[in-house]
Specification:
Order of helices and strands of chain B: HHHHHHHHHHHHHHHHHHEHHEH
Order of helices and strands of chain A: HHHEEEEEEEEEEHHEEHHH
Oligomer: heterodimer
Largest interface: A-B, 97 and 91 residues
Radius of gyration of chain B: 25 Å
Radius of gyration of chain A: 28 Å
Chain lengths: 336, 627
């Protein structure tokens, strides 16, 4: 009997081993926290995981023991096992112990939930960045500095930052897995949310929209870029400088003014229908996820829907010649 | 009962006439709970196949990064239709099929309380389901805002008629479900055979009872919510329009006040099925019957107290979040009681590993995994990380596939001989089980990891070059294909078994405990020749142990009063269907016409007296049917 079981399990186990070695189980996302919020949340998750693995072990041991020990054997056909009604002691045991286990998980849950909420609500004297989710991009406003930017949000390292979340259209959800859990960006003024996080190391952190928001929900990425304080200050200063148009970019600048300015502001601190393109040359990605190269940018302007389904920017391949698009690209790439 | 019998006898000669239909007409007009059960079962299996195909397309699209099997829009339609179809049109109707067929047999009744209503419930559900899927025929966009239909994405920001199909189609099928729920509540309260006290009721009936109560409350909330969505979309209502003073969060509350009980609506019947299958194949009575009844009731009650745990990231504040978190965690206690009770039912039993029992036993570890991840999700501060990622996808598929689908398959193998007079092939059944088990774990286990490393749910694609994402998604897709193969084998099994001659005995598993096993397979239209007398929990087992070959009767043999079949429910549902399309496409003629058909049918039903007919004792004996 045992041998037959072993035979059944061998191919299964071989497959599992193959899968485990084939996969690249690098710690990433919420499993590789880079800030205090994400760390506390991971600790809570790991604590619950330990308790839950204990529960699973107990259930699995009992379960497999029952299944293997009490199989019907030959010659039992006319035997009737004792009809057991129940057992009060056992039943009370498996009511009390789970309650205890839940208690030791509930206490840190309540504590952390309140703690996160209080920290996020303490907006006074904090650095607040306004986040507005739009189909399918993110607008970031720094009210104190007077900067509006999109898709890439800069914060100083080692400092608590509060994000004020809202939306211009449907519900989005703001998530930087390595730094914090998520919170929804709701439309309207009634349901504005605050989320706080802190990055302990400089780096480029991936951000995601996690609430289904339409066709390009999957591609509504953004980057959170944490810089050392002095570099961050330099970035702020850079963003506040008005763009300089040279003779080389004049044609592109004129075209931009005719065709693009309707939706895209370039002045620092100005909001617009589409993303503010101030400092575009420093952007890592187009549309939040496409490498910022000349070729990609040309293709994007020609037909953005091709690259990001459902975006509201119209295609310009029929409205502008390739030369004109090249001029605009040249201009955009001069926006330091 | 005696009174009803006397009344029946008085009518016997006055209304001996029976309208007999055959073939398709028989199925369209039937009010027999067993035939309606079979209709529910096959309609549910049909939608299950459609939902399964949608799932395969989802997984094929996600097999590789930046894949283009389907477009982004089509993908959103697929996830919406997969979820909606599986929950409303597949899982629940299949369970309703078992409710319909089995409950009257288990409580010793000849039919449900309202046979006409039962038929009406089925047909409105069915036509609602067709309406929901009508985009496949008209070429219109399908529902595309997720099965949760969050406003304003589902209201102001979904172009095309897709979300109208969702709100009106679900409204119709929801009416059907509501009617069914009411019917089961009344049936279980009023139609139990003499001696069948509530605490002697088989646990399947108990779970069906609690489920039906949940349905009555939860689906009412859904009906209201869907009406509001319809108003917003069709008539410029502003319930969820923030710009006009509405509030989009309102929808989420309404939806989850329905949506969370819905989860228990789907899983409680599976608990009931396990509580029938495991004792039968362990040859032992259910361990802790009383605590099982109370656990079921408590789960049903708490199920209404926890809806907002789907909304931790909405911004309800710490007080609401922690209250809902703790309430949710509490549900683990009664659920744990159930798990241990099943294990201890098997303990010291004689377990037979039939296909039905494999599915029932396989439920326990899979569902336990789904349960513990549920507790992890309930912890609000952790949920900020898990929320709307593949971790959630993994969790609820462990609960729904590992729980409900395993339960449904167990019930299918267990009750198939009772329903169709033939036993499904055991070898093919075991192959189905192992393929499903392996495929299901391959598909979903790895998604826990995918979620925490940062893959949100409902994404139509993902970028290349993220650590492990490509491999994990591919594994998941392979697992989904294996599940597909296992379901195909099940379908083949059903088809070849249905082509064989009927040969099942009354009690094909030999250790049947409840009353459905005391009567022929399949049962005659009147179920019990004489209403049985119930002398204990597991009534049939009690009689067998007392050496009896059939149930002790509670009445003498006499004419049996039966309801006449009717075409009206079918026509009424078509009327509603036409009106639904009229609302969607703004065609006044169709609205008036459709509702007109409905009203005319209601008038006909009210004015034409239909007292039913009687089956005479000679006819019963003539058939040589033992009851």
């Amino acid at each position: 009997m045992v041998k037959r079981w072993m035979k059944r399990l061998v191919p299964l186990m071989a497959m599992m081993v193959l899968l485990l070695t084939g996969c690249n189980f690098e710690l990433a996302g919420a499993l590789a926290p880079k800030g205090p919020v994400a760390e506390q949340q991971l600790d809570l998750i790991l604590w619950s995981l330990i308790v839950m693995i204990f529960v699973l072990l107990v259930v699995f041991v009992l379960f497999f023991t029952a299944v293997f020990r009490f199989r019907r054997r030959r010659g039992q056909d006319n035997e009737i096992p004792e009809q057991i009604e129940g057992n009060h002691k056992l039943e009370i045991t498996w009511t009390i112990i789970p309650i205890f286990l839940l208690f030791i998980m509930a206490v840190p849950t309540v504590a952390l939930t309140f703690n996160l909420e209080e920290e996020a609500q303490a907006v006074e004297g904090q650095r607040v960045i306004k986040v507005v989710g739009k189909q399918f991009w993110w607008e970031f406003t720094y009210p104190e500095e007077g900067i509006v930017t999109a898709q890439e949000v800069y914060i100083p390292v080692g400092e608590k930052v509060v994000f004020e979340l809202s939306s211009a259209d449907v519900i989005h959800s703001f998530w930087v897995p390595q730094l914090s859990g998520k919170k929804d960006a709701n439309p309207g003024s009634k349901n504005i949310n605050y989320l706080y996080l802190q990055a302990d190391e400089p780096g480029v952190y991936k951000g995601k929209c996690t609430e289904l928001c339409g066709q390009s929900h999957a591609l509504m990425d953004f980057k959170l870029i944490a810089l050392e304080k002095d570099e961050y200050d330099a970035w702020v200063a850079d963003m506040l400088e008005a763009p300089v148009v040279t003779a080389e970019t004049q044609v592109g600048a004129d075209l931009f003014e005719q065709k693009c300015l309707v939706c895209h502001a370039i002045d620092p601190g100005m909001g617009s229908v589409g993303p503010n393109l101030n400092g575009f040359a420093d952007r890592l990605y187009i549309g939040g996820f496409i490498d910022n190269t000349t070729e990609n940018l040309v293709n994007w302007i020609k037909n953005p829907v091709e690259m990001k389904p459902g975006v509201t920017m119209p295609p310009f391949e029929n409205e502008l010649t390739t030369d004109e698009i090249n001029e605009i690209v040249k201009y955009l790439q001069s926006l330091q | 009962m005696a009174h009803a019998h006397a009344q029946a006898h008085a009518h016997a000669h006055a209304h001996g006439h029976k309208k007999r239909y055959t073939g398709v007409m028989d199925w369209i007009t039937t009010v027999d709970h067993k035939k309606i059960g079979i209709l529910y079962l096959f309609a549910g299996l049909l939608f299950f196949a459609i939902g399964g195909l949608e799932a395969l397309f989802i997984r094929l699209q996600l097999a590789y990064p930046m894949n283009d099997v389907v477009s982004a829009q089509r993908f959103n339609e697929l996830i919406t239709m997969h979820g909606t179809t599986m929950l409303f049109l597949a899982a629940l109707p299949i369970l309703y099929g078992f409710f319909n067929f089995i409950i009257p047999l288990q409580i010793g009744a000849r039919d449900v309380a309202f046979p006409f209503l039962n038929s009406l419930g089925f047909w409105t559900f069915f036509f609602g389901g067709v309406l929901l899927n009508i985009g496949f025929f008209t070429g219109d966009t399908l529902p595309d805002s997720g099965w949760t239909a969050y406003a304003p994405l589902a209201t102001e920001y979904s172009a095309g008629r897709g979300m109208d199909m969702y709100s009106i189609g679900l409204q119709l099928s929801g009416i059907g479900t509501l009617l069914g729920g009411l019917n089961f509540v009344v049936t279980i309260v009023n139609m139990r055979a003499p001696g069948m006290t509530m605490m002697r009721m088989p646990l399947f009936c108990w779970t069906a009872f609690i489920t039906s109560i949940l349905i009555v409350f939860a689906f009412s909330a859904l009906a209201v919510g869907l009406l509001m969505i319809s108003f917003d979309r069709l008539f410029g209502g502003n319930f969820f329009n923030t710009a006009a003073g509405g509030n989009e969060i309102l929808w989420q509350h309404i939806f989850w006040i329905f949506g969370h009980p819905e989860v228990y609506i789907l899983v409680l019947p599976a608990f009931g099925i396990l509580s029938e299958v495991i004792p039968t194949f362990s040859r032992k009575r259910l361990f802790g019957y009383t605590s099982m009844v109370f656990a079921t009731s408590i789960i049903g009650f708490l199920g209404f107290m926890v809806w907002a745990h789907h909304m931790f990231t909405v911004g309800m504040g710490a007080v609401a979040n922690t209250m809902f978190a703790v309430a949710t965690m509490l549900i683990a206690v009664p659920t744990g009681i159930k798990i241990f009770n099943w294990i201890f039912t098997m303990w010291k039993g004689q377990i037979r590993f039939t296909a039905a029992n494999l599915f029932a036993i396989g439920f326990i570890p899979s569902f336990t995994i789904g349960g513990v991840t549920g507790v992890m999700l309930a912890m609000a501060a952790s949920d900020y990380v898990f929320h709307d990622t593949y971790f959630v996808v993994a969790h609820f598929h462990y609960v729904i596939v590992g729980g409900t689908v395993h339960g449904i398959f167990a019930a299918l193998f267990y009750w198939f001989p009772k329903m169709f007079g033939r036993t499904l092939n055991e070898t093919l059944g075991k192959i189905t089980f192992w393929l499903l088990l392996i495929g299901f774990n391959l598909t979903f286990f790895i998604q826990h990891w995918l979620g925490v490393v940062g893959m949100p749910r409902r994404v139509y694609t993902y970028l290349d070059g993220q650590p492990g994402w490509n491999e994990m998604n591919l594994v998941s897709t392979i697992g989904a294909l294996l599940m597909g193969v296992s379901v195909v084998i099940l379908v083949i099994n059903i088809v070849i078994t249905l082509m064989k001659p009927k040969n099942a005995t009354n009690d094909p598993w030999e250790d049947g405990r409840t009353m459905e096993w005391a009567i022929p397979s399949p049962p005659p239209e009147y179920n019990f020749k004489q209403t049985p007398l119930v002398r204990g929990l597991d009534a049939w087992w009690v009689e067998k142990r007392a050496g009896n070959k059939e149930m002790t009767p509670a009445e003498p043999v006499g004419p049996i009063h039966m309801p006449n079949g009717s075409i009206l429910p079918f026509i009424m549902s078509i009327g509603l269907f036409i009106a639904g399309i009229g609302f969607m496409y703004d065609t006044l003629l169709m609205i008036v016409g459709g509702l007109g058909i409905l009203v005319i049918c209601m008038i006909l039903r009210s004015l034409i007296d239909d007292p039913g007919y009687h089956i005479e004792p000679e006819e019963i004996e003539g058939k040589g049917v033992k009851a």
